[in-house]
Design brief:
Elements (H helix, E strand, L loop, with lengths): L1 H10 L5 H6 L3 H25 L1 H7 L5 H32 L5 H8 L1 H4 L2 H11 L2 H4 L3 H24 L3 H10 L4 H12 L1 H17 L2 H5 L5 H8 L4 H33 L23
Length: 286
Amino acid sequence: MATVASAQQARAPVSTPAARRRSFPVWRWVVLLIAALYFGIPLYAGLKFAGFKAFTQVTSYPQFGSAFALSLRLALIATVLTLVLMVPTTVYVHLRLPRIRRAMEAITILPIVIPPIVLIIGVLKVAPGFLISTPDLLGLEYVILAMPFAYRSLDSGLRSFDVKTLVEASNSLGAGWPTTLWRVVIPNLRTAILSATVLTVALVLGEFTMASLDNFQTFPVWIVNFEQNSGNVSVAASLLALFVTWLLLMLIVTLGSRGARRRGGAEVTLFSVGTRQTTPTVGEAE
């Protein structure tokens, strides 16, 4: 029987990358072509309307550098605070309070349901005076907006491996909770953390409503305000913001995917985290 099975396996066709490329369905090419046209035609029209000279003029306008630097600063603040708050919370819910996971999903969806104007009024009523006049308040508000996306990304990452077994094994080796979180859980959750980072950065760099209501001139607000003076330069600034955001996201995705491939884990994508990973190890938790 073993000989017959070996012979059948030997006659079975071997799936190679070239064979998979040849078997790529035609309808997928059609979908990719339609998507390319859907996104490419507006970009081409914007480039043609603005002209390449407008891109060189954008950086010479006043307040361009300060607005762009403020957006990057807010992206850094929101990303760090979101991860510091959501990673321990999500891990604790998975370990100690699995019954409230549905309640957590309902709570974290509220920033998407509640209108931004309501969030702004509520924050301004309860915020301390020393924060109201600083951009740091806007960074804290972005943490609230990023919470739904970060929580779902981290929750998906925790479901991809047996976190309870890893924590119990780490505790049996004498590691405390901080050591277990830092040296056991986070290395296996790194892919989900990078995915949450991608979503948070994309949200902050493209957010307009809350920044304008708070009277802070971030890069999206600067683009809208500048549109009244020069249409082609405003379009060039919008395209520049799009390209810079895309480059930042692709850089995060590339670094995350390379690290995941070295560890044999799932790859990072812009919208999800792969759920199939190799069996995680506890590591040096002593």
